[in-house]
Structure formats: C-alpha cells, structure tokens
C-alpha cells in the first residue's frame, strides 16, 4: 500500500525523523488558511505547494510550485487541485489531484550552501535483508545516477538481529561528506529513518531529496512510503490511510470480490487460476496476436459466483474483444469450473457479447469439455494450452 | 533417487487440524505419503486423520522421528512455525502459507541460516517425488515417475509443465515449487543444483517469472558448473507492465534487469534452452532429451 507524501512524512515525524513541515489542503481557500498557520508555526515566508498523488516526478508535470505570497498560494493551489497531473510515472491521461500539501520553504539562505542527498530503505532480495541505499546525488532520478555514476551510490546492509548500528550511521554521514553539526544530524536522521521503516513494516522508503539546510539541519523534503500489505493487519492505524481515489476503481472492486486483478491496455481478457499461469496466459495471448487486457487470478476456488464476478469485471473494459479462461484443475475440479462458466453465462444473458474460449486441463477435464460442448453456448473449448492460443488467434482474425 | 522428499521421509503437518491442513494432509496420505503426525499447539495427545497430534515440533521429532514438515499455519504465525521446526531439528521445512509479512520472513530466514535445515517456500505448492511422496498441494495424478526435474516459482504453471512433460511420454523425478515471495528459503539456483546433482534426473525444467535475480543466478551457476544435463527454461510475465505486482508478491519488474526479456537473454547465454511459449515446455524437453 502506498502513502501520500504528507502521510509518509507524518509517519516519519512520529519516529523522530526531521521533515519539511506542511499542512494538507483540499481547496485554494483552505490552502491559504494553512499557509498562514504554517507561517505562524514555522516562520516560513514562502510556501511550496505540492500535489498529493501516488506518482513520482510531480515537479516535472507542474505539480510542485513555489508561492512567494498568499495570493500566489491561492492561485497555485487553485491550479493544481483538480488538475490531471501527468508525470513520467502516470498514464497519458494523468492523475486527478484532490489535495495539496502546503509546505514550508526549506531552501532559505544561511551560513552554508544547502545540499541535497538521496536515501532509500528497501529489501535486498538477493540476501533477504533490508538495506539503506544512499547517494550524494540528491534530487535526481536515482536510476539515472545508478547508470551513469554508480560509484556515487552507497549501501548499508542491516543485520536483522541488531538493527542499524551506530558505526553504520556514522559511515553514512562520512560517505555523504558531512562534518560538524550536519554529521551528527545525519546519524540521528538515518537511525530514526530505519527505525520508522522497521516499526511500520514498510517495504520501501524513498526520500529524495534528503536536505542539508543552510543551517546544517538534515530533513526529509519528500517521502515515498510503501507499506507491506501482508503486515497491515498489525497496523490498523496505517491501514486506514489507504486512499481509494488513487487506485483503479475496477481493481478496487475486483479486490473486494477476492479477485487478484490488474488492468491492462489490450483486447483479450483472461481468467486464470494461479499467478504464474496467469502471466503465462497473458504471454500466450500476445504470441497468438492479441494483447492481454488484464491479469486475473481467480485463485483456488472457481465456482459459478466467482466466475460470474470475474466475467463482470473483465467486461467492464470496452476494449475486450474475446475472453480466454485457462484453468488447470488440481484440487479444483474442472467440471465444477465448467458448470460455473455455463451458469454464469446463462445468468448474465446478453451481457456477454464477445467470444469465450475455455481451456480446462487437469482433474475431470474430459467431463468439463463435454459439459461446455453440450451446453449450446457460444463457447469454444480446448484442453491443450496451444489449442487455446490457436482459438484466440482464430476469433481475433 | 530423487531430491528433498522420498518414501522414507517422516513427514509432519504443522497446522494439522486446521481446514487447509486437514484437507491437504488427507490428500497427501491418500497419495501414499509417509505422514507420521501433525502439530497443533494445545491439541497434543489427540488423534487426527488416524495420526498423532503433538503440541510442539520437538515432541514430534522425539516421539515419531519427524525429519520433514509441511506448514499450513496462517500467515501471522507462519514465521514462528518455520523457526520452531528449525529449532526442533527438522531437515526439510516446506512452507505453503501465502501472505507472510516480509519482516517475519527476514527474521525467520536469519534464524535458520546456521541451522542444518532447508526451507522451501513460503507461498509455494510444495515438493513432489512421484510415486513416493507428495508434500504439497499439487494434484498428484498429473506427476508421473520419470527422469525430468522441475523447479518453479508458480503452482499451476508447475502442473502445466509436468502435464506437458508427461504427455511427451516422459516423467518427473522431483518437482520443487520454490515459491513466489520476495524472500524464499531455497533459491532457483539451489533447487536446480540439487536436481543437476541427482543421478536419476536427466533434464531440468526451470520456470521463473519477472522480478528479482534468482533465474539469472541459476543460469550463471549452470554455465559455470559445466554440466551437460540440459535445462529447459521459461519465464512468465513478458507482457507484465513494470512496477506492478502480478499476483505473487515477488513478481514485480523493478528495473531493466529483472524483466522476462532480460532473464531469458541471460539464460540463453548460459546455455539454457529457453522457450518463449509456455505451451512448448514439454515439446522442448522431449527434443533436448532426443
């Protein structure tokens, strides 16, 4: 589950990580009120208005702007709220902005130059340990840094038995070239950051940039926070931060029905049991000349109610020209699935206007094929994987 | 010969009396698997499916000599179940449970790393040595005895591959479902290595998916091993969009090196017979075995 920047920052702050302070606003008037409040609280003169959507690269799309007075706060917040923000990480249509974060200006002049760093905490899949990845090159696209100047990226592996150790925090601060007050601040920052990650069952923290201010404070200016869905049961307070507006409505609906669904751009819908077979089926659709319209894992039970729910989800996509059902029956009996398909088809009447190809293999596959073939429905049956692909090709041409 | 499990394995079921544990333990026993008992804390002393129930894994090891376990306990308690099994001296720990928090798996894998045991999974279909032991949730009848080993991250795709291999008139030595989570006990490389070193296995099918480096590691190991045993590979998820989790928690493209295309390229360079179509796994195995 992803958090908004403002939610992520609140989480960090609750663990003692210094953040660029801000207040969230739903409209331009509220933004002005929050800007006044923030000036009272922090003394900031200027304000940064930041679109709150689940996508990176917001600045590039015009979703982050500096306001030098309250009139500008109002204008900019008015422009950003309600816009469809297009960034390198969104679709071409962009993402609707429902709220902005009104944040303090932290790039004020002072005794030293402000300096930006990059820092993330994530799982190193190759050894099953968390690591802190950091770089002197803050505020930039980290993939680009990794490609062009990999020697400027450092990592610190964390032993799960000990957590982050003081010498590791010092090493981070040294590698970032810090000294004096900023050095101490960084050791505190990185220690608190890792603690926050650990205690909140996060799967990704990305802080870009981490800022050293002109008066040598270290703070998180942005926060991308992803939480481990499997651990949300023990963080009820964090689970409530989920913003359904940021997710595809069709995926949310599928999730409520217990279907694992990912919306894609293609023309052939698919319904499969098992994630690996579902991906393989998508690949096969492509090789048969189609494009997969979705990923859909119906899971271990594929009865009539579930098949019907899956049909309704797939058919919400107007681009779907055919549907391929691919079930490998193990514990699930194919004849039950076949009966589910027949019942769902009959229940839905005219709602199904596209050809259906059903491939059932495994337990009771023969009975299932007979059931489909004798149903009188406009359903093509197959038993072999390749046969299913051929039939997809046939209906598309 | 076979790897990991055979007719002599003394198998217990953790989460024995729960609905999943009961159903699948029943199927395993029907298959002829040597299930010697089960563990459900608080139900020790009872009998379930005609087998003894123990309060702790240690008790099962002491009283019936258990050396292998299959874990069905719910996600919140599964990490603990793995550590209990390792502590009790179980040698092969097969974890079916899906949805274990990553932090729990970090802790469990750290705990067991110096113990004399092997973890398979979690979030996997288990391991089957046809005709000897089914320690998992796979449909037993699909897997016929033979000389092809299978390693796979996915459940139903394993069944698909086994079915295709069997329909070519071949069979399976051992099929190992390693699981689709970001942290798993036995990697693709380790599972492939087990099968390559198994004298009865004449060819290996290696099925992977997008995300992570496991297949690349396995391919590089295979090349360096100089093994002459053919390996047939498939990677699912060529059409999966970057940055989206495709069902399995670990199935997510994070960069340019964990896409299906990148993995297949490395595998080909390392001498693995890669098929682009999941419908051609069986055919390719028959071809390489001549």
TrEMBL record, chain A:
GO terms for biological process: succinyl-CoA metabolic process; tricarboxylic acid cycle. Pathway: Carbohydrate metabolism; tricarboxylic acid cycle; succinate from succinyl-CoA (ligase route): step 1/1. Pfam families: ATP-grasp_2, Ligase_CoA. Its EC number is 6.2.1.5. It catalyses: succinate + ATP + CoA = succinyl-CoA + ADP + phosphate; GTP + succinate + CoA = succinyl-CoA + GDP + phosphate. It comes from Mangrovimonas spongiae. Binds 1 Mg(2+) ion per subunit. Belongs to the succinate/malate CoA ligase beta subunit family. One of its GO terms (cellular component) is cytosol. Its cofactor is Mg(2+). InterPro entries: ATP-grasp, ATP-grasp_succ-CoA_synth-type, ATP_grasp_subdomain_1, Succ-CoA_synthase_bsu_CS, SUCC_ACL_C, Succ_CoA_ligase-like_bsu, Succinyl-CoA_synth-like. Substrate binds at residues 273, 330-332. PROSITE patterns: ATP_GRASP (PS50975), SUCCINYL_COA_LIG_3 (PS01217). The keyword NAD does not apply. Succinyl-CoA synthetase functions in the citric acid cycle (TCA), coupling the hydrolysis of succinyl-CoA to the synthesis of either ATP or GTP and thus represents the only step of substrate-level phosphorylation in the TCA. The beta subunit provides nucleotide specificity of the enzyme and binds the substrate succinate, while the binding sites for coenzyme A and phosphate are found in the alpha subunit. Mg(2+) binds at residues 208, 222. PANTHER family: SUCCINATE--COA LIGASE [GDP-FORMING] SUBUNIT BETA, MITOCHONDRIAL (PTHR11815:SF10), SUCCINYL-COA SYNTHETASE BETA CHAIN (PTHR11815). Keywords: ATP-binding, Ligase, Magnesium, Metal-binding, Nucleotide-binding, Tricarboxylic acid cycle. ATP binds at residues 50, 57-59, 106, 116. One of its GO terms (molecular function) is ATP binding. This is Succinate--CoA ligase [ADP-forming] subunit beta. It comes from the Bacteria. Heterotetramer of two alpha and two beta subunits. Residues 9-236 form the ATP-grasp domain.
Automatic annotation (TrEMBL), chain B:
CoA binds at residues 17-20, 43, 96-98. It catalyses: GTP + succinate + CoA = succinyl-CoA + GDP + phosphate; succinate + ATP + CoA = succinyl-CoA + ADP + phosphate. The keyword Ligase applies. Transmembrane segments: none annotated. Residues 4-100 form the CoA-binding domain. GO terms for cellular component: succinate-CoA ligase complex (ADP-forming). Pathway: Carbohydrate metabolism; tricarboxylic acid cycle; succinate from succinyl-CoA (ligase route): step 1/1. One of its GO terms (molecular function) is succinate-CoA ligase (GDP-forming) activity. Its EC number is 6.2.1.5. It comes from the Bacteria. The active site is at residue 248. InterPro entries: Cit_synth/succinyl-CoA_lig_AS, Citrt_syn/SCS-alpha_CS, CoA-bd, CoA_lig_alpha, NAD(P)-bd_dom_sf, SUCC_ACL_C, Succinyl-CoA_synth-like. One of its GO terms (biological process) is tricarboxylic acid cycle. Pfam families: CoA_binding, Ligase_CoA. Keywords: Ligase, Nucleotide-binding, Tricarboxylic acid cycle. It is an enzyme of class 6 (ligase). Substrate binds at residue 159. NCBIfam families: PRK05678.1, sucCoAalpha. PANTHER family: SUCCINATE--COA LIGASE [ADP_GDP-FORMING] SUBUNIT ALPHA, MITOCHONDRIAL, SUCCINYL-COA LIGASE SUBUNIT ALPHA. Heterotetramer of two alpha and two beta subunits. Belongs to the succinate/malate CoA ligase alpha subunit family. Succinyl-CoA synthetase functions in the citric acid cycle (TCA), coupling the hydrolysis of succinyl-CoA to the synthesis of either ATP or GTP and thus represents the only step of substrate-level phosphorylation in the TCA. The alpha subunit of the enzyme binds the substrates coenzyme A and phosphate, while succinate binding and nucleotide specificity is provided by the beta subunit. This is Succinate--CoA ligase [ADP-forming] subunit alpha. It comes from Mangrovimonas spongiae.
